[in-house]
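Changelog-adjacent note: as of this version, every example in the card shows the full chain rather than a window. The one below runs 402 residues end to end.
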Amino acid sequence: MKAAGHDLYANEERIIPARGQEVVATGISITPPEGTYGRIAPRSGMAVKHQITVNAGVIDSDYTGEIKVVLANMSDKEYRIQKGDRIAQLIAEKIVESDCYQVPKLRKTDIGKQGFGSTGTSKAQICEISARAFGKFYQRPDTITGILKYNKKEGRISLESVNISTELAIKSGKYQKQRKLEEMVPQEYHGYLDVFEEEEKTKLPPHRPGVDLDIKLEEGQGLPVKKIYALSQDELEELWNYIKQNEERGWIRETYSEGGSPIMFVKKKDGKLRLCVDYRALNYVTKKDVKWEWGNKEQAAFDELRQKLCSTPVLTYFKPGRPLLVETDASKYVCSGILSQHDEDGRWRPIAYRSKTMAPAECNYDVHDKELLAIVQALKEWRRYLRGSGQHFKVLTTTKIK
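Full-length structure tokens:
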């Protein structure tokens, strides 16, 4: 199945000011098929992560000029567009072409001239109920549960419906104030803030003596020539987009070398394609006599890394005879748990983690039954550790079970 939208790429660098907009050229012109028009739509990734959307964007079939995109920045910080960035998508939509004519009078309708908000209102009854009753009402299809929001400017209250997706968004911070990067990254790592940025990097690092690396071949060896792997139509299209984008960025350039390495594609978790280069033949003829240096600086970094790995709660091996602790928790739709054990210093160290989505019927359990379900699942999964351990073990949960 082909994508509905065709990617549009920036043909120039632009800075979109905070709460402002800029017109970005694409360097291309198109003619939509007869009976259609081109609609420029925002990219979901830019809209969600950076609050960059598209203003206007209708391309008539008789327009033959360059396509330009009006990008609007809804955030409080400026956003930089690099040449070759994907900035929007073009969607071809069918239209009904009709002639307009004047009439002396319009037909009567229920709404008439009432204007905005005239499609009807209904009264809402608000009452206080217990958490147990709310849990039961939440599962009923005829009941709407949600978040009440008050708009001070408009003087009205609105109800935002809550489902599992909304709840996950709330927990992930969608409805929380966005924190600055400096607030989320520890102070000692502020010198590397660019590593934690979500924006896609579009420039190569500068050349630096002692950092740049040459690939040297064994004596008498040349660049290997390998057979090109066969690619499907969608993979060829992705390869062409990859070459075009990275040539414009200056990351790659055309070459007439006698050798080359084949490429292949693997699917990411989101279904998109990732380009991979098969360098095995090149690695075989590359010199292996790289100078190995290990001084005080390298030893200090290694010691610090070892100390952090040993002091943080990373997984450790199970050791028979030591005290065990089972911690469980349950939400509306997930059961989770941690199995820990005492180390040599008497500290609790995790041995295993678990998390499992509830079945549809289990989602209807009340809070206490869900907590018990989490305990039962944990005891079953970690039976090999707990049974026959020769001692009692503790189970901790977040809810008091009577």
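Structural remarks: The chain has ten helices and 17 strands.
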